[in-house]
User: Fold this.
Amino acid sequence: MIQRALKHSPDDPLYVVAVGAITNVDDAIFKDFFQKVQAYDK
Assistant:
């Protein structure tokens, strides 16, 4: 999802529809970000 979002622009945004809690989407984004932060920390 994040890779797809990075391909889009403000003129062509990526819309996400969550079936269930929006916190599931938030959690997925946070986990991806956290993994990248750990990779830079090493």
Q: What stands out?
A: The helical segments are 2-7, 22-41.
